[in-house]
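Something for you to look into today, if you have time. I want to see for myself how the chain folds. Leave the record below and I will have a look.
***
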Amino acid sequence: SVLRDAGLDLMFANTYHLMLQPGPELVAEAGGLHAFIGRDAPLITDSGGFQVFSLARPNEADAREMKSRRPSKQKGNDGLLIRTNEAGVQFRSYRDGRNVALTPESSVAAQKALGADIIIPLDELPPYAIDSLSLKKSVYMSHRWEARSLKAHLSDKRKQAMYAVVHGGVDRDLRRMSVEYLSSLPFDGFAIGGSLGRDSKELIELLTFLMPLMPKDRPNHLLGIGDVPSIDGAVPLGVDTFDSTFPTRNARHGRLMTFSGKGSFNVLRAENARNFAPPCSECPCPLCASHSVAYLHHLFKANEPHAVTLATTHNLFHMGRVMREKREAILRDEI
């Protein structure tokens, strides 16, 4: 498979979208996600909460990408989140407008049906710009939701692991409290979530404070972060795994990741119409092994779907190499 050839061992599957299409029941009928998509390597699923809260306040890129998947009667993503309370969240499906309830227990049930190896408890995603009292209330509610999720998980483990989600925004005291509380519960690992700062610099400052507090006997995962500068800063601090739409979103917009120049370039630029060299001479991906930048430029201009496939595959190979070099540097005691 592409992911295996690219050296990316852990695949992140999106519970929110899978709940709405094709549905956890159908995936379970197929034998779970591994059988459904033909993958024998590890899989992790999120709770669905991130999309519920992020789609209530989409950024410009999210809004553009969701537009083609919204039913025509929908005017936008505003209003998809109906309510949040102690029970859980209620939202409207972006596919057909129907009301959907998501609770800690129903999220776990969906992830059990999907059959991933690692699952995530339901948590709330507050925005970066939030007052301290509201943030504190959000963290405590996420902790209660996570405890309920863990209880549901432990009643039917199915050889799955569950990672807690550490919260607190950029508030150091709340982050410390979150680690102390969640590490007292029998979670198998930890995910670092919530608002992680305005930029990579603030992220690394937060991780510099947070990582020494994390339990050393269990793995940790940084949620939603996968750009190279952030990875460069986070790996030496002890972060084990990452997930992000960064490489695939870049690919959909014609931006190829490279190890030269600024780290990426836009294949859609006019000068690339006559660039007959491969994007990266040292990259073994199908794009670089068989095609030129000019050919990919042509495919994008012609709106050929294969353009996105080639660009996405290339960026995944690039990220696979980035992470392979990190692992090798760790083994050489250079990190």
